[in-house]
């Protein structure tokens, strides 16, 4: 009898505990933002596609609202689909929303956590030093420095020569040009002009391809199952993700070390050009190994932040000009009016304020195809409450930049390329509110906003203005003589149009001659 009572008591106690846990979870769930429930343990991991994750997130914000809560492999996850929500949390509460989640593949195994992108913050001294260095070297004031502006104009002229010499391979030219520009800025390195591809540009391109692949949400299972990082390489076919990470890390180490050693060698021989690294080494009389490592990481972060994002915008611009030739014609008319119709000079930054429609095209490119549609994830460092909802410490937060820039309530007909949406009735650039400005939204939020945004905006503006002034971009014709309409399809963690075909031809013989002459003058000045 006593045993029966004890068993009954234990059963009642167990049921009570289960009931209380169930009630607690119900209350906790009710106090969380709405979102897809997913499956036990795995959550919504298998609902997130390998590519274009921003479209799935956008689908959820359409269903549940601009703040979506879910779990991925047990990890609380928050998706922000509006500028209001991102501003409220990532901007206004940046002190607790500026950390990064542990990126097992890209950060820990490959080593990108040494740089700014995956550095923990905001109280991390390394993070603060990165921000200080970047603001000093490519912040808003630094980006008005005539030396940097001249460098961007010169590299843009060289980009135009690439289009002129080899228009069929237009897709790769912006990446090569941007790589050359950042190598020059960071290391004072001039790319080889007599080779199809500079060897150092190739080193950093390969490392950047690894960065983009390792950073894709869901690309590697180890990011969802962190314990897998302890698996020995030999138990996986061909070494599995461990072998991939080892090779990516080797490529990243090359990107860190080779250009840094180049600057030191140039300084010893008295040939070093002004650059980020040269400035650092001159100021540091006796740098420690830790100093060198931090500066290598900062210089590499300059590259990782811009080497693929600016080309994303340039190739999206070329695609848009194929699809909307009337936009191209209007911009060319504006350029001919301001710069002159006879091709005696190329556009410069001094023309910028007089080219409202060209500036509007830049904004529309950033809106139509945000270079990094999801940005990099943030991580909440303490419990928070927003709109009455509980958000637990450790939550991973994604700002769906693509969703914000495709909001039809803000941008009518968002899939159409319409630069005039940024102009007033007099054809001048409108004063944009935060929620309608792609030049701000597209570069992220809070303390994690891209520190190279001003440098990138300069590069995109001068690239677009110069290309519009000197080239006609048009659709190719098929064997039947009819125009072939390129598809609008963007893919990748850093979003690029899928490869497409188009015709890129100089607007006139005078335009072609002007480009050749301008590059020849640059070469003479370098000698």
From TrEMBL:
It is a single-pass membrane protein. Pathway: Secondary metabolite biosynthesis. It comes from the Eukaryota. One of its GO terms (cellular component) is membrane. SUPFAM superfamilies: Cytochrome P450 (SSF48264). InterPro entries: Cyt_P450 (IPR001128), Cyt_P450_CS (IPR017972), Cyt_P450_E_grp-I (IPR002401), Cyt_P450_sf (IPR036396), Cytochrome_P450_fung (IPR050364). Gene3D superfamilies: Cytochrome P450. Heme binds at residue 450. It holds the Pfam family p450. Its cofactor is heme. It is found in: Membrane. GO terms for molecular function: heme binding; iron ion binding; monooxygenase activity; oxidoreductase activity, acting on paired donors, with incorporation or reduction of molecular oxygen. The keyword Plastid does not apply. The chain crosses the membrane at residues 7-25, 453-472. Keywords: Heme, Iron, Membrane, Metal-binding, Monooxygenase, Oxidoreductase, Transmembrane, Transmembrane helix. Its main location: membrane. Belongs to the cytochrome P450 family. This is Cytochrome P450.
């Amino acid at each position: 009898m006593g045993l029966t009572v004890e068993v009954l008591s234990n059963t009642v106690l167990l049921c009570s505990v289960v009931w209380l846990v169930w009630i607690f979870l119900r209350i906790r769930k009710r106090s969380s933002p709405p979102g897809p429930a997913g499956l036990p343990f795995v959550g919504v991991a298998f609902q997130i596609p390998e590519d274009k994750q921003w479209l799935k997130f956008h689908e959820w914000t359409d269903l549940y609202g601009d703040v979506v809560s879910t779990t991925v492999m047990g990890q609380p996850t928050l998706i922000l689909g509006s500028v209001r929500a991102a501003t409220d949390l990532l901007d206004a509460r940046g002190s607790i929303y500026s950390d990064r989640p542990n990126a097992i593949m890209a950060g820990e195994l490959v080593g990108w956590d040494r740089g700014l992108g995956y550095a923990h913050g905001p109280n991390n001294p390394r993070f603060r030093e990165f921000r200080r260095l970047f603001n000093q070297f490519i912040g808003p004031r630094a980006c008005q420095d005539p030396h940097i502006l001249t460098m961007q104009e010169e590299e843009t002229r060289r980009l135009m020569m690439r289009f002129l010499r080899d228009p069929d391979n237009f897709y790769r030219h912006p990446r090569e040009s941007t790589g050359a520009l950042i190598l020059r800025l960071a290391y004072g390195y001039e790319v080889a002009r007599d080779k199809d591809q500079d060897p150092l540009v190739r080193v950093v391109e390969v490392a950047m391809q690894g960065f983009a692949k390792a950073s894709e949400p869901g690309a590697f299972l180890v990011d969802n199952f962190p314990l897998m990082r302890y698996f020995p390489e030999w138990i996986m076919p061909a070494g599995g993700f461990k072998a991939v990470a080892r090779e990516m890390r080797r490529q990243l180490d090359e990107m860190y070390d080779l250009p840094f050693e180049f600057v030191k060698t140039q300084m010893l021989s008295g040939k070093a050009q002004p650059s980020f690294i040269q400035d650092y080494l001159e100021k540091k009389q006796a740098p420690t190994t830790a100093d060198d490592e931090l500066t290598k990481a900062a210089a590499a972060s300059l590259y990782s932040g811009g080497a693929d994002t600016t080309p994303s915008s340039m190739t999206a611009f070329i695609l848009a000009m194929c699809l909307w030739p009337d936009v191209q014609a209007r911009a060319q008319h504006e350029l001919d009016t301001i710069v002159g119709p006879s091709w005696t000079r190329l556009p410069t930054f001094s023309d910028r304020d007089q080219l409202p429609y060209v500036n509007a095209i830049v904004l529309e490119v950033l809106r139509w195809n945000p270079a990094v549609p999801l940005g990099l994830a943030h991580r909440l460092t303490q419990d928070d409450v927003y709109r009455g909802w509980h958000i637990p410490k450790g939550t991973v937060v994604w700002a769906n930049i693509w969703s914000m820039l495709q909001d039809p309530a803000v941008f009518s007909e968002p899939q159409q390329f319409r630069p005039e949406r940024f102009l007033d009735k007099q054809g001048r650039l409108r004063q944009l509110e935060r929620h309608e400005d792609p030049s701000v939204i597209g570069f992220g939020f809070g303390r994690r906003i891209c520190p190279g945004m001003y440098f990138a905006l300069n590069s995109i503006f001068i690239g677009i203005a110069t290309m519009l002034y000197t080239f006609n971009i048009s659709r190719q014709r098929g064997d039947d003589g009819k125009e072939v309409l390129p598809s609008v399809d963007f893919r990748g963690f850093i979003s690029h149009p899928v490869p497409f075909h188009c015709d890129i031809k100089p607007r006139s013989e005078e335009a072609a001659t002007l480009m050749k002459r301008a590059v020849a003058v640059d070469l003479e000045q370098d000698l």
